[in-house]
Design a protein that fits this description.
Strand content: under 5%
Helix content: over 70%
Number of helices: 4
Order of helices and strands: HHHH
Structural class: mainly alpha
Radius of gyration: 13 Å
Shape: globular
Largest sheet: none
Protein backbone atom coordinates (compact mmCIF):
# COMPACT_ATOMS: atom_id res chain seq x y z
CA UNK A 1 0.00 0.00 0.00
CA UNK A 2 2.81 2.44 0.91
CA UNK A 3 4.74 1.69 -2.27
CA UNK A 4 1.66 2.20 -4.40
CA UNK A 5 0.88 5.51 -2.68
CA UNK A 6 4.49 6.65 -3.18
CA UNK A 7 4.35 5.76 -6.89
CA UNK A 8 1.14 7.78 -7.25
CA UNK A 9 2.77 10.76 -5.53
CA UNK A 10 5.78 10.57 -7.87
CA UNK A 11 3.42 10.23 -10.84
CA UNK A 12 1.63 13.43 -9.74
CA UNK A 13 4.94 15.29 -9.59
CA UNK A 14 6.00 14.01 -13.00
CA UNK A 15 2.64 14.96 -14.49
CA UNK A 16 2.88 18.47 -13.10
CA UNK A 17 6.49 18.84 -14.29
CA UNK A 18 5.45 17.79 -17.83
CA UNK A 19 2.74 20.45 -17.88
CA UNK A 20 3.60 23.51 -19.95
CA UNK A 21 1.72 25.75 -17.52
CA UNK A 22 3.42 24.57 -14.31
CA UNK A 23 6.64 26.26 -13.24
CA UNK A 24 9.21 24.99 -10.77
CA UNK A 25 7.79 27.54 -8.33
CA UNK A 26 4.33 25.98 -8.75
CA UNK A 27 5.76 22.53 -8.06
CA UNK A 28 7.58 23.82 -5.00
CA UNK A 29 4.37 25.38 -3.64
CA UNK A 30 2.36 22.21 -4.34
CA UNK A 31 4.85 19.55 -3.19
CA UNK A 32 7.54 21.41 -1.25
CA UNK A 33 10.39 20.32 -3.53
CA UNK A 34 12.85 22.60 -5.33
CA UNK A 35 14.02 22.51 -8.96
CA UNK A 36 17.08 20.23 -8.44
CA UNK A 37 14.91 17.60 -6.72
CA UNK A 38 12.31 17.79 -9.51
CA UNK A 39 15.10 17.19 -12.03
CA UNK A 40 16.36 14.18 -10.03
CA UNK A 41 12.85 12.72 -9.85
CA UNK A 42 12.36 13.19 -13.58
CA UNK A 43 15.76 11.75 -14.46
CA UNK A 44 15.30 8.66 -12.29
CA UNK A 45 11.76 7.95 -13.53
CA UNK A 46 11.96 8.75 -17.24
CA UNK A 47 13.81 7.04 -20.05
CA UNK A 48 16.97 8.97 -21.04
CA UNK A 49 15.43 10.26 -24.28
CA UNK A 50 12.27 11.37 -22.51
CA UNK A 51 14.31 13.17 -19.86
CA UNK A 52 16.32 15.02 -22.54
CA UNK A 53 13.10 15.99 -24.31
CA UNK A 54 11.61 17.26 -21.05
CA UNK A 55 14.74 19.34 -20.27
CA UNK A 56 14.62 20.82 -23.76
CA UNK A 57 10.95 21.79 -23.26
CA UNK A 58 11.67 23.27 -19.83
CA UNK A 59 14.46 25.44 -21.24
CA UNK A 60 12.22 26.55 -24.13
CA UNK A 61 9.38 27.42 -21.75
CA UNK A 62 11.72 29.38 -19.46
CA UNK A 63 13.00 31.40 -22.42
CA UNK A 64 9.46 32.02 -23.59
CA UNK A 65 8.47 33.25 -20.12
CA UNK A 66 11.52 35.55 -19.91
CA UNK A 67 10.66 37.12 -23.26
CA UNK A 68 7.04 37.56 -22.19
CA UNK A 69 8.08 39.28 -18.95
CA UNK A 70 10.36 41.71 -20.81
CA UNK A 71 7.51 42.96 -23.03
Amino acid sequence: AYRRQRQMCIRDRIEMAWSDEATFSDIEREFGIKEPEVKRIMQSNLKPGSYRLWRKRVRWIKEKQKKHLKV
